[in-house]
Amino acid sequence: MDQAKRLLCTRDLWNPFNTTFVQTCGMLLVSQIFHVILKPLGQPGPVAQILAGLVLGPSLLCKIERVRQIFIQPAFEAYSFLLLFVFRILFMFSIGLEADLPYMSRNMKRIGVIAAWNLGVCGAFGAAASFFVIYLLKVASHRFAFAIIIMIIVASTASPVVVRLIAELKFDTADTGRLAISAALFIELFCIAWYSTYLAFSAGNMFGFALVCILGTGIVAYANRFMAMWCNKRNRNMKFVPGTEMSAILLLVILLSFMIEKLGFNSMISCFLVGVAFPREGKTTRTLLHRLTYAVNNFILPIYFGFNGFRFDVNYLISVRNCIVVALVIVLGIGGKIIGTLCACHQLNIPRNDAVVLAFILNLKGHGELLVIEAFSRSDTWWDDNTHKLVIIIVVINTLIAGPVVSFILKRDAKYFAHKLTFLEFLDPEKELRFQLCVYESRHITSKLGLIASMTGSNRSPTVTYLLHLVELQKRHRRKKKLMYHQLQDGDQFSDDDEYGGNDIVEINDAVDAFTTDSKILVHQNKAVSYFPKVYEDVCSSAEDLRVSIVFLTFHKHQRLDGKLENDKDGMRIVNQKVLRHAPCSVGIFVDRGLTGFQLPSPELAQNVATLFFGGPDDREALACCKRIAMHPYVNLTIIRFQSSGQPKKKEVHDRNGEDEEQHISICSYEVDMAIDNVFMEDFCNRYVTSGKVKYVEKRTENGEQTVEILKEIGEMYSLFIVGKGGRGNSPMTTGMSDWEECPELGAVGDILASAELNLGASVLVIQQHRSATDGHEDNENPVLDDDD
């Protein structure tokens, strides 16, 4: 401590403290330059950040004597170690906080098999390589400990590097990317636990300390949960928790880490577990994610990767012996990952393309193995500094190889790895469904939460829910008065970007928090601030990045107290129309009727829902959506199938420029569509109607007028009507209904249900299937059959 004070108070401008600060600033600046250059080439951020460290380190700039004297000082290692130690605590806690626990629990077998094969094969390769490395480096003592280090280096995977790389490539929502993140966490935590177990056995008296570490981790996890709930109650009317309270939570984690390190163990597992145990709902979690994510992605990890590159010294590769060691370990590491992952994926029936990407992702290094070698270098006098440098070289080269390879494969096979589940018709209801809901104001959130609850159905139907708050950016937005940072009140944000949305943000957050607490359904919240002409781009790009199968939009009208619909914000209708045209997935438009419409299903308030089936891809999509709703215990679902009671005549078209051939193709397409409808409905009935979960009713109608009369009869029996937008072309059952159509984006039936003519109290959900799945039924406007004249 006295030495640190002397270094801080010295008059020398280039003391180690100032030097560390200048290094971090230089790494951020140079890494940003590299990132701008390499991003168009598809290279991820960690590569640019490691290269920035290489430029500033002994491999390049530090070859200049004056720069070397400034950047590399006797106490520099102590400062950088403390800085990187705090950074590791924060990003491991952040990784635990963002861990996808439901996905891990559902895919534990796949994650375990991939991790086990990788650890087994790479461990065997590392054990074999250790004999040659020990011989080449002439290691005379502690050979068993050295062999363990080589095995860990070959087998380990750096989970922070994996998380950052996959996020940079927008691959974190793909199944392969999520599988890679989960397997990387499992492998790295196992390697750290392996190292800690070795320390316990070698020291002999470490098991008592291990129990103290476990107890301390449990106490801090419980204390953080209590503090999170207390902060949520204390800050009810605030968007974020004040910085002082958030700092107290992080301080507990940092103190726990220092205690564990003092006892001789590694604290990264404890930091991760404390993050995993932290509550997933409330303002406290939202504040931590908001601030930690920004800090980790923009400062902590770039500096961490930069320091890894800074410690890379190319001078150690001059020796042929060192080059052989580096090449041997790298080749065996890559080979072990490829062989282990291919064997695991063959056992799990995972395609080979995914296996190759997984193998190179799991070959990323730069965290767990550095923790191990730094611990050995501090605790054992036998550890050689040259060996330490070689390990760092191996880690850096591995990442510089694996990162570009993964980026190249994903870019080359972009169509293969693109999101394919863009609609619901063929999605197994027991498979995971990803969907997104869009709201503009707080009054839109109540019915959307009811829709989320009904779509979740049961535990057998896993879902991932995203809520996108769309905020209009006014052209003449009056910005708040600019204040200095120290003039802001505690809990305020220095940037005014978070002020967009007003009190709606607080009300939406409170509603979502209460819903998550009661239902245990996690809702991932996002916000998009844009001008209305560009809002549809935010919705579509978000849907594509999150790989959702359906997006639910808000209708541009809201219900007044007298029951009539009134136009909402200007531009909402145009947004809905553009999203329907450009969305990369299916789209639903929800017409909310307030208290008389669809509500949150509960034992006290069961909801009656009706699905109207006329036929066609959009109606099949609506029926597929109902597979999830049918599983909810407090939703009574009824399928009403409309069938034509007459036999319409086919058009008689004379041979005029091939029109009869086109008519024949249209008729064949119509018959194929009818056959698909029948098969789909039969499968639905066998699964849900025969078991009594869903009621089934058939209605006969000859024309649109009779259809409207039927809709009037059943209008007050249900709180929600679900219908496809397009139906099956110009069907006789809907003929004439579009003559008074007011909102074409709802389709003929949806527009009638939402119109003032029927004056229904029920909400309406209109669904359009993703157009790439409709085989050319772009607008469902190709006439096939005519009415009887």
TrEMBL record:
Domain Cation/H(+) antiporter central: 463-597
GO biological process: potassium ion transport; proton transmembrane transport; regulation of pH
Record GO cellular component, one term: endomembrane system
Key words, A-Z: Ion transport, Membrane, Potassium, Potassium transport, Transmembrane, Transmembrane helix, Transport
Pfam families tied to this protein: CHX17_2nd, CHX17_C, Na_H_Exchanger
Membrane topology: Multi-pass membrane protein
Keyword Transport: yes
Domain of life: Eukaryota
Subcellular location field: Membrane
Main location: membrane
Residue stretches making up the Cation/H(+) antiporter C-terminal domain: 608-770
Transmembrane intervals: 21-41, 76-95, 115-137, 144-167, 179-201, 208-228, 248-276, 288-307, 319-343, 355-376, 388-410
Stretches assigned to the Cation/H+ exchanger transmembrane domain: 33-411
GO molecular function list: antiporter activity
InterPro entries, A to Z: Cation/H_exchanger_TM, CHX17_2nd, CHX17_C, CPA2_transporter, Na+/solute_symporter_sf
Family indicated by similarity: Belongs to the monovalent cation:proton antiporter 2 (CPA2) transporter (TC 2.A.37) family. CHX (TC 2.A.37.4) subfamily.
Listed name of the protein: Cation/H+ exchanger domain-containing protein
Taxonomy of the source species: Eukaryota, Viridiplantae, Streptophyta, Embryophyta, Tracheophyta
